[in-house]
């Protein structure tokens, strides 16, 4: 049997006590979502209000799914986030490789350019982005209301972050491995694909997750560029339910936010240790 | 072929060009467009009319709401970033300890990150509802307040509440950076310090804090940029209301451009924000200790 570690037990108690206030605040909104989502609609607005419903009404989720067109919105969110992440990673990996492996003229300039793009957040440029989208012809009209405009701008706004993360990680991959491959008659390009990229996969995965989350959560651009209901993403669909309305169906709204949030939270809980490792690696340099 | 040309100075540029072009394309035209709109009389549909020089800027600066908004943005940024660092340092120190359930604790602390800002804002807006919101219900049950507080309908409450939500959502990212910093600190220096008789507090002041400093700096800079530009929390919770008492520059900009139909002035606000961010960046670069170029 394992000995019970007494000092560790005490330490655990103190740590949990100290974390408790913050943990409660973190969990509070999840409790609000859950208990509102399962309330019978007529109990949402009763005074005095209560935490617990008289009975759990799971039907709310099905009603909400129809009312919000949840499936369509979910699909739109996925399309936009996945595609913009793929584009961002595809253009950032070569750039990060160049930064990590070559000394070259213009390196400083490129770094400063990235810093500026990081500062120019989408919301600052949203007026101009909107005008840009109206200028580019697409289909019968222009890029307003098409996913392409949103995808390309998300990809562009994530480049700076992705290149930084990737290049600082790439710099930690020993150069010797590639050089050894050259000696064995492997060309430079082939050695990149055979030796370097396999080693870089974890960094690319972590960077992709961050980029995906950024795209999934972005609001201002998609809120401005997408007008029709069938093209809207989850965040915008759900915001529509509460913004500028006289009466809000809170049980449906909370069912929708809970359903939109839980999968990501579970994924996040699972990936959390890798994220901490990845971000700190990217942060060190 | 590229293989033999790999030593040439062209290769790195070929690798960089796709990312450079894409970012340049998405930024240069909108930026040009905003500058252009800011010096023209613009119709509410974005049609450029006469060149009017700095008229838009003059109108914006003459608007008392704008000036209040500038100050509020400053408080918002200071409040959220300062609060976040103050909360995150102790949390990171705790999470760095070895204790039972640390994995669960870390997951809980990271959880707000997984919820989009928009959803967080929607849930808190409902939770702060006057009569039916669970914040008032819980506080009343605990006997902390006697009647419901009108959180979001009162100017004095709405803004601090929003700052609180801003802190809550910024903590996970910041703690992550600090945890990375703490894990890069070699543990033997603490043992040496203990042998020299340094107290816990002295260890923190003399060792942990200085070693954490670069990470705190980085967290502050990134958070300032994010928080200064943060749109969803305020937009979803109060839309700048009641009576313009919670606007920050981004929400004010959005309202001018897309609600009130004054895109010329909105463009001017964008440029003012850009100027503020530029000043901040220059200040930051100046404050950086001279270091050799990193890899």
UniProtKB/TrEMBL annotation, chain B:
Entry keyword Hydrolase = no
Q: Keywords on this record?
A: Cell membrane, Membrane, Transmembrane, Transmembrane helix, Transport
GO biological-process terms attached to the record: transmembrane transport
The protein's matches in InterPro entries, at most eight in alphabetical order, are given as: MetI-like, MetI-like_sf
In the bilayer, the protein is annotated as: Multi-pass membrane protein
> Which Gene Ontology cellular component annotation is one that this UniProt entry carries?
plasma membrane
Tell where it localizes.
Answer: Cell membrane
- TM spans (from-to): 12-32, 74-95, 107-127, 157-179, 215-237, 266-285
List, for all copies, the residue spans of the domain called ABC transmembrane type-1: 70-284
Main subcellular localization, coarse class? membrane
Cross-referenced PANTHER family, in alphabetical order? BLR7065 PROTEIN (PTHR43005), SPERMIDINE_PUTRESCINE TRANSPORT SYSTEM PERMEASE PROTEIN (PTHR43005:SF1)
Protein family: Belongs to the binding-protein-dependent transport system permease family.
Protein name stated in the entry: Sugar ABC transporter permease
Q: Which organism is it from?
A: Leeia aquatica
């Amino acid at each position: 049997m394992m000995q019970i570690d007494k000092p560790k037990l005490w330490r655990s108690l103190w740590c949990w006590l100290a974390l408790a206030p913050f943990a409660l605040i973190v969990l509070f909104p999840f409790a609000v979502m859950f208990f509102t989502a399962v309330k019978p609609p007529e109990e949402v607005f009763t005074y005095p209000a209560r935490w617990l419903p008289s009975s759990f009404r799971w039907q709310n989720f099905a009603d909400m799914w129809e009312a919000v067109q949840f499936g369509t919105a979910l699909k739109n969110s996925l399309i936009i986030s996945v595609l913009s992440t793929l584009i961002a990673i595809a253009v950032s990996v070569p750039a990060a490789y160049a930064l990590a492996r070559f000394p070259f003229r213009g390196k400083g300039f490129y770094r400063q350019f990235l810093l500026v793009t990081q500062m120019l957040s989408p919301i600052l440029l949203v007026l101009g982005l909107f005008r840009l989208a109206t200028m580019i012809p697409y289909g019968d009209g222009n890029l307003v209301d098409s996913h392409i405009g949103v995808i390309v701008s998300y990809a562009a706004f994530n480049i700076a972050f992705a290149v930084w993360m990737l290049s600082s990680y790439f710099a930690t991959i020993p150069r010797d491995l590639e050089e050894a491959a050259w000696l064995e008659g492997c060309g430079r390009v082939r050695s990149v694909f055979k030796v370097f990229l396999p080693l870089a996969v974890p960094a690319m995965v972590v960077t992709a997750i961050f980029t995906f989350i950024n795209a999934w959560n972005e609001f201002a651009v998609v809120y401005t560029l997408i007008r029709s209901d069938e093209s809207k993403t989850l965040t915008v669909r759900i915001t529509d339910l509460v913004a500028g309305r006289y009466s809000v169906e809170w049980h449906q709204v909370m069912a929708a936010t809970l359903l939109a949030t839980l999968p990501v939270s579970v994924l996040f809980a699972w990936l959390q240790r890798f994220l901490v490792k990845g971000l700190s690696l990217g942060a060190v340099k | 072929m590229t293989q033999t040309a790999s030593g040439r100075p062209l290769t790195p540029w070929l690798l960089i060009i796709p990312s450079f072009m894409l970012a340049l394309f998405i930024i240069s035209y909108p930026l040009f467009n905003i500058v252009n709109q800011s010096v023209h009389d613009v119709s509410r549909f974005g049609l450029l009319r006469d060149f009017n020089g700095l008229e838009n800027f003059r109108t914006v600066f003459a608007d008392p709401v704008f000036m209040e908004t500038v100050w509020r943005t400053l408080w918002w940024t200071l409040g959220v970033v300062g609060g976040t660092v103050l909360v995150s340092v102790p949390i990171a120190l705790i999470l760095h300890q070895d204790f039972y359930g640390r994995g669960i604790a870390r997951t809980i602390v990271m959880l707000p990150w997984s919820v989009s800002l928009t959803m967080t804002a929607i849930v808190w807006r409902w939770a702060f509802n006057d009569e039916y919101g669970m914040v008032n219900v819980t506080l009343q049950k605990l006997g902390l307040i006697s009647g419901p507080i009108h959180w979001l309908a009162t100017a004095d409450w709405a803004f601090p509440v929003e700052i609180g939500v801003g802190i809550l959502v910024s903590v996970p990212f910041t703690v992550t950076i600090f945890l990375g910093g703490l894990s890069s600190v070699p543990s033997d220096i603490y043992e040496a310090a203990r042998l020299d008789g340094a107290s816990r507090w002295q260890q923190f002041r003399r060792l942990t804090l200085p070693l954490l400093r670069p990470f705190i700096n980085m967290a502050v800079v990134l958070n300032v940029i994010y928080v200064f530009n943060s749109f969803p929390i305020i937009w979803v919770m109060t839309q700048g209301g009641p009576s313009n008492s919670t606007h920050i520059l981004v929400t004010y900009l959005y309202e001018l451009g897309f609600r009130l139909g004054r895109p010329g002035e909105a463009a001017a606000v964008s440029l003012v924000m850009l100027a503020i961010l530029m000043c901040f960046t220059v200040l930051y670069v100046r404050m950086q200790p001279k270091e050799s170029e990193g890899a």
